[in-house]
Amino acid sequence: MKRGRFDRSAILAARAERDRFLVEHYASPIPEEHRAGFAGAAYYEPDERFVFVGSLLDGPTKVAVPSSAGTVRNYQSIGIARITVEGQSYDLTVLDDGDGGAFLAFGDATNGRTTYSGGRYVGVELDARGDAIVDFNRAANPYCVYDEEYSCPLPPPGNIIAAPIEAGERMYPTTAA
Question: Shortest CA distance to 134 belongs to which of 175, 95, 173?
């Protein structure tokens, strides 16, 4: 199984930046009346076991993606990231984030227990060799977790990982265990 480069300090810095955004930024999904009491998101400890390098394969160009509001919307797909988690291969649809990047909306065995039941998002780095680097330590909750007025894309069919991905952002509101 191929593993990507693990950078604990970069992960922690990105988390601190996200927490600042959630508290201070005008576009934060946290309602203003809840920001004063927000001490930062709860995260799993960074763990190098959750950084994967997979092949980026051709896939559908449009994917019907369900949302937290119960609607379905077509998203542009960049391709399929094939990664192996706990010995099982997964073909995960990589979506275009609309800003020149790529991300996975994914679900896993932690959903509804220690993470949001609807899944999480994680950026996908695409390299020149055609590899897809997925660092689940950077997984984040969708905005609809913080405010139900947001309609967020949920994992498209096939983007559910049977294993627990105990990495990235945890359930909100919660305290880290």
Answer: 95
Closest among 126, 114, 124, 119 to 44, alpha carbons compared = 114
User: Is there a contact between 46 and 71 (Cβ–Cβ < 8 Å)?
Assistant: no
DSSP secondary structure code for residue 142 in this structure? -
Sign for the pseudo-dihedral over CA of 99, 101, 105, 110: negative
Q: What is the pTM of this model?
A: 0.91
| CA distances in angstroms from 6 to 39, 45, 127, listed in the order given | 26, 13, 16
Torsion sign over Cα 163, 164, 167, 169: positive
Q: How confident is the model at residue 102 (pLDDT cuts 50, 70, 90)?
A: very high
Q: What is the pLDDT of residues 28-84, one digit of tens each?
A: 999 998 898 888 999 999 999 999 999 999 887 899 999 999 999 999 999 999 999
Cβ(106)–Cβ(100) below 8 Å:
no
